[in-house]
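dude i think i finally got it to work??
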Amino acid sequence: MNSANGAAVVVGVDGSEPARTAVRLAAREAARRQRPLRVVHGFIWPLLRVPVSAPPEGPPGGGLRHQAEELVAAAVAEAESAAPGLRVSGEIIDGEAAAVLLGESPTAAMIVLGDRGLGGFAALVVGSVAIQVASYADCPVLVARGTARATGPVVVGVDGSTLSHAAVDFAAEEAAIRGTRLHTVHAYTHPASTGPGDMQPLVYEESDLRDEENQVLAESLTGLAERRPEVPVTRAVVHARPVAALVEASREAQLVVVGRRGRGELTGLLLGSVSQGVLHRADCPVAVVRAPG
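look at this
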């Protein structure tokens, strides 16, 4: 995430109701972080060589460009209403939605999107925009879905890899900003392999396995208390699939955080079943965090 003082929270808009939900969420997130909000609309029509200005014989204020200006202005007003006093700006950028948002990501504190939309943002969760933005953005991506709650913990999925440390740190920061606890969830279904091609044991002692998985979670949280002493941390080691465990935890959460890559069940998170499952089924907003490097 870009930590520069001027880095803005960026929200992608297309005029749909899910995008309006994303604007309100982005406004609250920007206000919490004391950052400006930047409203962006990817205007694809010039790429398709479609006329965008009002035709000479048409009504005043017609044309695709004017429509885009109106939807951005409405989104800016929505953000200002959701977070009075917030610095909000809006811009129409010629280009395809994913490319426009990825172009914003190197200088953004965060990108916020609705869980589905119109035009370039259609079928956001399962479509190419979500996959491209979440897979390649240089900053966290927050998807507005489920219930926006002012209470409840921030939940983070932990898989024991060094790459999940970024998700834990981001989730702890979110918990600190929101003044709530961090609930860490480590899900397992069977013993983890110790290397490529290793065979998993057919018979194992459940109590021993649970002790091992508890140790995995504990090691993943090493140093967190020193880095974030103000954040209460609770832990859950669950014998379940990661999607089911995180979705269950989301029912009382303000936010669920997952890392972009990981080990075991979380490997290939953005392109695989875990991310799709959490984004489709979580009962609160979901943040996808890029690991450094």
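The longest strand covers residues 37-43.
im so relieved honestly
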